[in-house]
Every structure is written in structure tokens, then in C-alpha cells.
Amino acid sequence: MKKFAALLLAVMMVLALAACGEEAPQASGSAEPTPTTVGQILYKDFKDKLSADPSMSAQAMADALLTNEIIQFMGASMPVENGLLMGFGNTEITGFQEGVMFAPAIGSIPFIGYIFTLEEGADVAAFEQLLKDNADLRWNICTEAEETVVGSQGNKVFFVMAPMSFEEQ
Q: Minimal CA–CA distance to 110: which of 138, 151, 69, 78?
């Protein structure tokens, strides 16, 4: 009887481990996983908005992203020029035709985002790499972002440094 109970317990433990290790099912035909972090959710929103209106300006996009329900702060956006930009240390970010920064109105939240429009024919991958290579998660005094999300659609580039979520720990 003890052997049977031990075997039954072992089988139950294996089944419990298998159940805990399963991934959440995805909708059939879905090529991309559901975004779960602040940056991923905003990047998906960026792509969706550009798919609906490919001519959307960087300023209109930044303003639209600030209305996303994941944003839990009063935000502001402003145009930026080629040169030194917040979040990239002493590296000059150049090569864009239009740039807009969007961020919290209060500086203690570790969040900063940019939308860039590059010239037609520009090397988008090289520009994305410039952003990735020079992003400083500790650009903001006393706070640190947890993730950097960089992506593009056409000649529009999305960049965000943010916490993984705005939930209280």
C-alpha cells in the first residue's frame, strides 16, 4: 500500500509540474505573443495606429500614445532636434527628419519615449541600433527604467525606456 501511495504522489507531482509549466494558449493564427509590458503594449499601439494611418506625424503619434490606458501619469510631448537627447548620454542622435519626445510631466517616473520619422530611404536598422547602443536606463536621477523597446514601421521609429509595469510592487 505504501508503494502505491508513493507512486500516486509521484505521478501527481509530475502532473502538477507539467500544468505549471504550460504556456498560456494563444489565439489560433496569432503570429505574435500578447504584449505584457509597458513598452510592448505601446509598441503594439504604435504599429496599430500606423497601420490605420501610415501618414500619421511623429507629433500626432506621440500624443496618441500618451492616451493609451497603460499610461498612468500626466504626460507631455515636445518636438526634438537632431543632437543630444535625454536618455542617450553624450551621444548625439542624428539622422531624423522629425522627432518627438513624450514623457511624464513629473520627472521621477522612469519613462521616456520618442517617435522619429526618418527620411525616405534612410537606414532604419542602423538608426534603431544607434538608439539601442546608446540608451541609458539610468538617465533619470534616482530612478531606473527596466526595459528598452525599439522598433519601426516603414520610416517611423518607436523608442521607449520604461518600467515593466506601473503596478505597485
A: 138
Q: Which three cell numbers stand for residue 73?
A: 501619469
Cβ atoms within 10 A of the Cβ of 114, count? Answer: 26
Q: Which residues does residue 117 pair with via DSSP β-bridges, in sequence order?
A: 98, 156
Percentage of the residues of the chain whose pLDDT score is greater than 70: 80
Helix (H), strand (E) at residue 60:
helix 58-65
* Nearest one of 126, 105, 101 to 116, comparing CA atoms: 101
Between the two ends of the chain, the Cα-to-Cα distance in Å is 47
In whole angstroms, give the CA distance from residue 111 to residue 88.
Answer: 13
137 neighbors 149 (Cβ within 8 angstroms): no
C-alpha cell at position 40: 510592448
Domain count for the chain: 1
Does the structure show a pLDDT above 50 at 11? no
Q: Give the Cβ contact number of residue 22 at 10 Å.
A: 7
Per the domain annotation, does 160 fall within a domain?
yes
Enter the pTM of the model: 0.79
Look up the domain containing 79 and give its range: 51-164
Task: Tell me the average pLDDT of the chain.
Answer: 85
